[in-house]
Design a protein that fits this description.
Blueprint lengths: L10 E3 L30 H4 L4 E5 L2 E6 L36 E4 L5 E4 L5 E7 L2 E6 L2 E6 L4 E5 L10 E6 L5 E5 L2 E5 L4 E4 L10 E6 L5 E5 L2 E5 L4 E4 L10 E6 L5 E5 L2 E5 L4 E4 L10 E6 L5 E5 L2 E5 L4 E4 L10 E6 L5 E5 L4 E4 L4 E4 L8
């Protein structure tokens, strides 16, 4: 079975951790300051540059960084550009990705260089790891260290890739700054706003129990059933049109983390929760549903747990590494893992908090 956000086999979340496959995993990060879109600043560092981790049945095992690449067992970055092609083949549907550049050699051949060190998301497929980066998508084989990089030259919508999810058919879905691309291993298919996508910036992707694909964008939420598109925005009941996280509970209800609170949608009715209800902060960057069905919501002022009736918020005063929470994962034992801004990683077993920092081997 392939991993995806709503499945128990592997949760792909924005979190950084240096743990091990069978030995040490090397990762590093240059943290960026959180920003406030309401104050006129684009929340790119808050919603895009979060480091990432994969949690398997046996526990955390792989880490990546937003600025130094995916390092599984060694510290080298993801490597040189994969693609060489004539300048006439440069894609015209949008700008080149973050830190992309063109160079020409003495023979008049142009080369596109994309920086794949900026890792935004991970997905596990078999023994390989897919990394969403600011310079395309990289498929990494930890066993031998080999990789393949895909960019707009191969068919990717945009080289700035923000999210990866793999469906049950094995198709990879990549959310980018320029639309969403699906890759079946041979053919690339890209969807953009003219096709029905709410916005071309896709921050999150998840699948519901019916097999529909949901996209959290900067302009609302879109759902695609394979044929038709449906988009939901604030007039429909969504808390805010900037959607950073999507999760599904066991009842099939969709949860959306936005900059205006968290919204739950049961297919008919929208319910939004904000600070007035008990949410720690209205900017929700991460969502995870635990084994008991409780929703954990990562915010700028701590993490809130909602059991359907009662709200409980944890902050640094309780043992959380930092109250700026960018990512949440639940491991097989039911422990919660929280990725924070400049505080490290915290694990909570329901009673005790344990924090890991650079002193423990966590990357910067």
């Amino acid at each position: 079975m392939h991993c995806r956000l709503s499945m128990s086999r592997a949760l792909i979340v924005g979190l950084i951790l240096s743990l091990a496959l069978s030995g040490p995993v090397t990762a590093s990060v240059a943290a960026t300051n959180p920003v406030d879109r309401a104050a006129g600043q684009e929340p790119e560092s808050a919603l895009v540059s979060s480091p990432v981790i994969v949690v398997e049945n046996g526990g955390p095992f792989a880490a990546a960084t937003p600025c130094q690449g995916l390092s599984l067992g060694h510290a080298e970055p993801l490597g040189p550009p994969r693609v060489t092609f004539p300048l006439s083949n440069v894609p015209r549907q949008g700008p080149l990705g973050r830190a992309d550049r063109l160079t020409a050699d003495s023979n008049g051949t142009w080369h596109i260089h994309t920086n794949a060190d900026y890792v935004n998301d991970l997905a596990v497929e078999g023994d390989g790891v897919w990394a969403a980066t600011g310079g395309g998508v990289v498929h990494w084989s930890p066993g031998d260290g080999s990789y393949v990089k895909y960019t707009t030259a191969d068919g990717l919508a945009d080289s700035d890739v923000l999210a990866i999810t793999i469906d049950d058919a094995g198709d990879r879905w990549f959310g980018t700054e320029g639309g969403v691309s699906r890759f079946d291993g041979t053919t690339w298919t890209t969807y953009r706003t003219p096709d029905g996508l709410a916005s071309n910036r896709v921050n999150a992707i998840a699948f519901d129990q019916a097999g529909q694909t949901w996209f959290g964008t900067s302009g609302g939420v879109s759902v695609f059933d394979g044929t038709a598109w449906t988009t939901y925005r604030t007039p429909d009941g969504l808390a805010d049109n900037w959607v950073a996280a999507i999760a599904f509970d066991d009842a099939g209800h969709a949860w959306f983390g936005t900059e205006g609170g968290v919204s739950r949608f049961d297919g008919t009715t929208w319910t939004t929760y904000t600070t007035t209800h008990g949410l720690a902060h209205n900017t929700v960057r991460a969502i995870a549903i635990d084994h008991a069905g409780h929703a954990w919501l990562g915010t700028s002022s701590g993490v809130s747990r909602f059991d359907g009736t009662t709200w409980t918020t944890y902050t640094s005063a309780h043992g959380l590494a930092s109250s700026f929470v960018y990512a949440i994962a639940i491991d097989a034992a039911g422990h919660q893992w929280f990725g924070t801004w400049r505080g490290g990683v915290s694990r909570f077993d329901g009673t005790t908090w344990t924090t890991y920092t650079t002193d423990d081997g966590l990357a910067h």
